[in-house]
Design brief:
The complex is a heterodimer of chains A (about 150) and B (about 325).
Chain A: H1 2-13, H2 19-48, H3 52-72, H4 76-83, H5 85-88, H6 91-104, H7 110-117, H8 123-144
Chain B: E1 2-4, E2 9-17, H1 19-23, E3 32-33, H2 44-62, E4 72-76, H3 83-89, E5 96-98, H4 105-118, E6 124-131, H5 133-140, E7 156-157, E8 160-167, E9 173-179, H6 194-213, E10 222-225, H7 229-244, E11 252-254, H8 255-258, E12 272-273, H9 275-291, E13 297-306, H10 309-313, E14 319-329
Parallel strand pairs in B: 2-3, 4-5, 4-6, 7-12, 10-11, 10-13
Antiparallel strand pairs in B: 1-9, 2-8, 6-8, 9-14, 13-14
The chains are: A mainly alpha (about 150), B alpha/beta (about 325).
C-alpha cells in the first residue's frame, strides 16, 4: 500500500525523456557513420583497385581504428554521450567499448588489468554473437541443407 | 532512535574539492580545489586517497592540532572495503573506525563521534568522508571513457574530501542531537534514479526525528537532505506531506542541488551525490551561515542508497538509509 502510494508520487515527478529527439539524433548519426563507411568503400575500390568485399574489410578496419584512436585521445566519450546509439550500435561502439575498458584498467597492469577487463563490455556481444551465429547456422543446415 | 548530545561541538572544518565543484556556486568557499580530476595522483583511486588525506591534515592545521591530539579518526567512502579511508588515515597513525553508509556516511560518522565525546570516552574526534566521480563510476557503472548516455534522473558523484573536528571544546556550533536511520525498502530498482530510492529513507528519518524530539518541522531554519537531486527533492516534499502530514515547503533544500549550478552545468543532470556531496555543502555554506547566525538550527539528513550492482542484477530492490544530525548555532 505504502509502496504503491510512493510509486505514484515518483511517477508524478519523473521527468519526461525526449525519446523522439534522442532517436532522431541516433538515427542521423548512425546513418552518418553508415554513409561514411560507404564512402570509404568506394574510395578504397577506386584507389586500391580491390573488390567491394575486400574494400569492406578495409573500411571496417578504418572505422575501428578511428573509434579506438578517438577514445584514446579522450573525446569519443563526449561524442557517444551526444550521439548515443548512433555511435554505439555500429562497429565504432564495439571498438570504443574495448578501448575505454582497457584505458580504465591500465593502472591495474597488463594481465590483471587490461587483459582481464578489455572485454568487460564487449564480451557479451562476442558470446551471444557466436551463440546466435551457431544457432542460425544449425537452423539453416536443417531447413535448407546449408544451401539457402 | 534519537540521541541528545551533551557538550559536543563542531570545531574547524576543511574541504578539498574537484573541478566540477569548483565551478559551482560554492567554489570560492572550499579550502582547496583541483582543476584536474587526477589531482596530481596516478589513478582515480589514488586521487581520492590524496584529497581525503589532505582534507584531514587541513582540518588538523586549521584547529591547530597535531595528529597525536586526536583520539579517534572516523572515515568512510564509496570504494570497496572503504579503502580510500584506510589509505588516507595510514600516515596519521591514530585509532581508526572505517564506516560505510553510502552517501549517508558523513552524518553516520558525526553521530558515532558525538556519542563517544558525549559519553566522555574520547575528547577529540576527526570525522572525514570522501568520494571521487571517476573512481565511483569505475566501480559502480561503466568505464569512465565510455560516456554511456544517462537519463535526467541520474546524479553525478561529487569529487572531494571533507573533514571536521568534533570535540568538547566550545565553538559556535553545537551538535545537539542525532537520529539513526533504518534500512528502508520501497521496492525501487533503478540505479539511475537514486533520488527516488532515497527519498523514502529521508522521509522516515525526518519523521522519526521530529516525533522523538516532539518538534515541528518549522523548529528548524533549514532542513537539508544529502543528495536527493532535483526530482528526489520534490518526491520527498510530496511524500512527507501525504504520508506523515509534515510540511517541508518553506525551509527545505538538498545539498546535491545547492552544490552545483544545474542550469549551466548540464552534465550534473539531477544533482550531486556521494558521501562528500552533503559534507562539502555542510562544511562550507551551512557552517558559514551558522557562524553568521543567519541560520540557527539546522537538521542535516544525509541520505544513502545502499546500492550493490550484483544484488541489482540478481533482481533485488535497492535499499536506502538516512541519518540525521541537528546542529545549533550558539
Amino acid at each position: 500500500m505504502k509502496n504503491e502510494k510512493y510509486e505514484k508520487i515518483i511517477q508524478k515527478h519523473r521527468p519526461t525523456e525526449q525519446r523522439v529527439n534522442n532517436a532522431f539524433i541516433a538515427f542521423m548519426i548512425g546513418g552518418g557513420v553508415g554513409a561514411l563507411g560507404e564512402i570509404l568503400i568506394q574510395v578504397f575500390c577506386m584507389v586500391f583497385h580491390v573488390s567491394r568485399t575486400e574494400a569492406s574489410v578495409f573500411m571496417i578496419i578504418t572505422l575501428i581504428f578511428l573509434a579506438a584512436l578517438f577514445t584514446a585521445l579522450g573525446f569519443f566519450d563526449k561524442w557517444v554521450t551526444f550521439g548515443k546509439c548512433g555511435l554505439l550500435i555500429p562497429i565504432t561502439g564495439f571498438a570504443h567499448s574495448m578501448m575505454s575498458a582497457s584505458l580504465e584498467y591500465k593502472r591495474e597492469g597488463l594481465v590483471t588489468g587490461i587483459g582481464t577487463n578489455a572485454f568487460k563490455l564487449a564480451g557479451t556481444v562476442i558470446v551471444y554473437g557466436v551463440v546466435s551465429a551457431w544457432t542460425f547456422g544449425v537452423i539453416r543446415l536443417l531447413i535448407g541443407g546449408g544451401l539457402v | 532512535m534519537t540521541f541528545h548530545f551533551r557538550n559536543v561541538y563542531l570545531n574547524e572544518v576543511a574541504t578539498i574539492a574537484g573541478p566540477y565543484e569548483k565551478k559551482g556556486p560554492l567554489g570560492k568557499y572550499f579550502d582547496e580545489c583541483y582543476t584536474d580530476l587526477y589531482c596530481g595522483a596516478k589513478s582515480w583511486e589514488k586521487a581520492e586517497v590524496k584529497i581525503l588525506n589532505e582534507s584531514m591534515k587541513k582540518a588538523l592545521q586549521k584547529n591547530k592540532l597535531k595528529s597525536d591530539d586526536i583520539d579517534l579518526v572516523i572515515s568512510g567512502d564509496l570504494l570497496n572495503q572503504i579503502s580510500s579511508s584506510s589509505y588516507a588515515v595510514n600516515d596519521l597513525n591514530r585509532p581508526f573506525f572505517g564506516i560505510y553508509g553510502a552517501c549517508s556516511t558523513n552524518v553516520e560518522g558525526l553521530i558515532i563521534g558525538s556519542s563517544l565525546i558525549s559519553s566522555k570516552f574520547i575528547d577529540k574526534c576527526l570525522c572525514s568522508v570522501s568520494s571521487h566521480n571517476m573512481s565511483s563510476e569505475k566501480q559502480f557503472r561503466n568505464p569512465t571513457e565510455y560516456g554511456a548516455p544517462k537519463p535526467k534522473t541520474a546524479t553525478f558523484t561529487s569529487t572531494g574530501g571533507a573533514s571536521a573536528v568534533l570535540s568538547s571544546a566550545k565553538s559556535s556550533i553545537k551538535v545537539e542531537s542525532g537520529t539513526i536511520g533504518k534500512v528502508i525498502d520501497l521496492a525501487q530498482t533503478d540505479p539511475l534514479d537514486m533520488g527516488a530510492v532515497m527519498a523514502g529513507a529521508a522521509a522516515d528519518t525526518i519523521y522519526t526525528h521530529l516525533k522523538d524530539t516532539g518538534r515541528d518541522a518549522s523548529y528548524y531554519d533549514l532542513i537539508v537532505t544529502g543528495d536527493l537531486g532535483l526530482y528526489g527533492k520534490e518526491i520527498l516534499k510530496d511524500f512527507m506531506k501525504s504520508e506523515y502530514d509534515v510540511d517541508l515547503s518553506k525551509n527545505y533544500n538538498d545539498c546535491g542541488v545547492i552544490l552545483y549550478d544545474l542550469k549551466k552545468q548540464q552534465e550534473i543532470l539531477a544533482g550531486g551525490s556521494g558521501p562528500v556531496c552533503s559534507a562539502l555543502v555542510l562544511y562550507t555554506y551551512i557552517v558559514n551561515e551558522m557562524k553568521k547566525k543567519k541560520l540557527k538550527r539546522v537538521l542535516m539528513v544525509a541520505t544513502g542508497a545502499l546500492f550493490n550492482p550484483n544484488f541489482v542484477f540478481q533482481k533485488e530492490n535497492i535499499l536506502s538509509i538516512a541519518h540525521a544530525v541537528s546542529l545549533e548555532a550558539i
